[in-house]
């Protein structure tokens, strides 16, 4: 079966067509500037790349163009739409309404719209627009929703509750949900396979470090805690997000800067994190270059990121009562040896011993072990593959 994985944003729609027999991506691409002048689709297939410059006023036109590209003479990989056995949609937030991959039905869409939009106003509405567009264009193809939050639904109450009145959780759903679940699930399962151990016998901390970063504690194959919270603003500081801070300072900052509640949250999402600390960039490549050239604030931003990530690893080892493996993944986790070394420095007391040469070795896109042979805790770099998880879950559900 071939599964089309769709990840729709407000003005973008990324896709991959995956052949489930081989688990290989046979075509991929993305529509950009949907609803904005100058929209285009960049499509890859058959080892070629082609740009389709076409007006895309909405997501329906975008998905139609994707289906056209999948059947194109040059970059096309299928003859007819019927070859697509199912569509898997990435959905960011589920609230407590869905705790697993779910088949798309009219009731499910209604629940998403009525209950989850306010939980993820930037992500869920455009994703649902993408689902509806696909339903219009491919009404007979089964579709599944794969939630970023599902993997975290196993967290115990003591981990996901905030210290607010219990009624605020019951009445409004104010709690930690966590994000990047498909990635944490994938890399923790890959780690178990690599270590030739059953997931139930492993205590793993997975560090998904990218533009958005989150760290999870995976005990016996189940997520027991994670650093992101009610929204993806929580946890370590990120590219442009502040990460955890005292809520009183948020109100103070809003007052000082003359910002509304909504605007101060936008500020903490878009203008803070390592970009705000360094004053240079949200991109770790720029920060590393800046620090090497003596820019103290770039060095400080890197130091803070490494320190905060290290603290999560330590606290999750304590929460799980042990640690067998640390996994690094995503843009920074997979590509920045200097950050990995900074995160791991000082964790020798937990049984972590870095192999410096292995850590510096060039990323070849495969799993590699960067802990020393005699390190009690294994440290792995594992390329994440969220699309493959979405495709697998979709195929399994069907
Ligand atoms: P992601 O959100 O997973 O795509 O990660 C994006 C971040 O990863 C970028 O902001 C960069 O800071 C970092 N990144 C990606 N590739 C590299 C690289 N080759 N070297 C250093 N950092 C990288």
What would you note in describing this structure?
- The protein is of the alpha/beta class and 398 residues long.
- It has 2 domains: 146 residues, ATPase, nucleotide binding domain (Nucleotidyltransferase, domain 5, 2-Layer Sandwich); 186 residues, Nucleotidyltransferase, domain 5 (2-Layer Sandwich), CATH 3.30.420.
- The protein contains 15 helices and 14 strands.
- The strands form 2 sheets. An 8-stranded mixed sheet has the order 5-4-3-2-1-6-8-7, with helices on both faces.
- Strand 4 and strand 5 form a beta hairpin.
- The model has no long low-confidence stretch (mean pLDDT 96).
- Bound molecules: adenosine monophosphate (AMP).
- Adenosine monophosphate binds next to helix 10 and helix 12.
Main β-sheet description:
8 strands, mixed
What is the arithmetic mean of pLDDT? 96
The ordered H/E elements are EEEEEHEEHHEHHHEEEHHHHHEHHHEEH
Q: Give the radius of gyration.
A: 21 Å
- How much beta, percentage-wise? 15-25%
What features would you highlight for this structure?
alpha/beta; 398 residues; Nucleotidyltransferase, domain 5; binds adenosine monophosphate; 2 domains; 20% strand; globular; 8-stranded mixed sheet; 6-stranded mixed sheet; 15 helices
Any chance you could write out the topology, listing elements then pairs?
Blueprint: E1 2-8, E2 13-19, E3 24-32, E4 40-45, E5 48-53, H1 59-70, E6 84-91, E7 102-103, H2 106-116, H3 124-137, E8 143-147, H4 157-160, H5 166-172, H6 181-194, E9 203-209, E10 213-219, E11 222-226, H7 247-257, H8 261-270, H9 273-278, H10 284-292, H11 296-320, E12 325-329, H12 330-335, H13 337-344, H14 356-360, E13 368-369, E14 378-381, H15 386-397
Helix pairs in contact: 1-3, 7-8, 10-11, 11-13
